[in-house]
């Protein structure tokens, strides 16, 4: 097992990218609902040798030490690639799962929580809007109404919690506020995350990361949501493709929103195969980047330097 920092009680099962961190935010997946490469496509992105052009469905994991020194993992969405993502990121616990909305690419990993039930010897708390909870109960009847299963089987155990827009949740020394967003005509949620307990706020790297807003699958930001996007250190924002789309920000629309929000760092996610990482990333304004699967924040100077050298060599 790796040891993150010197703080007693925070023990991480980590990849090399996460060693020596007391807090980490990992992009488990940054792709559109079809993933990249897309099945049956031979475009430049889908056949690219750049590993940053390989994108699993969107999800992220925030790992940190809580106010009692216990290690915690909060998961943002659980898509159909969750098993693969958890193995790659060496996830061994999920203390809370926050759902942005009910679409398949954000929810069809719920079954995978059963393994975390085994590892943690208990149920997992999940948080979602009424609309998403209704969807989950309908689709996952074998989980939510396990007593009606024909025979006992290995199914996930969850404790559902209702989220209301703009109403904060206190979780492990963090305040997490659901941000109302629009995904076409569908109301969805983003999340503002900030430290509320001084011990958590003092974790190494926390001040570089938080406040953070996670906003995927966005086509519009209602007036009441803009105040929750003020004063951010980190903005994670959906940016589907260069062309306009009825239910997602295009690259240009995402750039405009990011520049208005003015976070210290903005990372785009939920890109389709029209977005080749290197040329699009290089053309973005300062402070705005394309995220990639496996990227861990906050980054060290050594990581930034080695990434720059790698990108230069890859272009050459």
Please provide a written account of the structure.
- The chain is an alpha/beta fold.
- The protein has a single domain (2-33, 41-315), classed as Metallo-beta-lactamase, Chain A.
- Helix content is 24%, strand content 25%.
- It has ten helices and 16 strands.
- Strands 8-7-6-5-4-3-16 form a seven-stranded mixed β-sheet.
- Helix 8 (251-261) links the parallel strand 13 (234-238) and strand 14 (265-269).
- The longest helix has 15 residues, at 301-315.
- The chain is globular.
- The two termini are 38 Å apart.
- Mean pLDDT is 92; it is low at 1-20.
Shape: globular
By CATH, the superfamily comes out as Ribonuclease Z/Hydroxyacylglutathione hydrolase-like
Helix content estimate: 10-25%
| Helix-strand pattern | EEEEEHEHHEHHEEEEHHEEHEHEEH
CATH architecture: 4-Layer Sandwich
Distance between the termini: 38 Å
What is the CATH level 1 assignment? Alpha Beta
Output mean pLDDT: 92
Sheet/helix structural class: alpha/beta
Which runs of at least 5 residues are low in confidence (pLDDT < 50)?
Answer: 1-20
What is the number of E strands? 16
Describe the strand arrangement of the main beta sheet, using strand numbers: 8-7-6-5-4-3-16
Share of β-strand residues: 25-35%
Count structural domains.
1
Number of helices: 10
From the alpha carbons, calculate the radius of gyration and give it in angstroms: 19 Å
Oligomer designation: single chain
Q: What is the structure about, briefly put?
A:
The chain has 316 residues and is α/β, with parallel strands linked by helices. 24% of the residues lie in helices and 25% in strands.
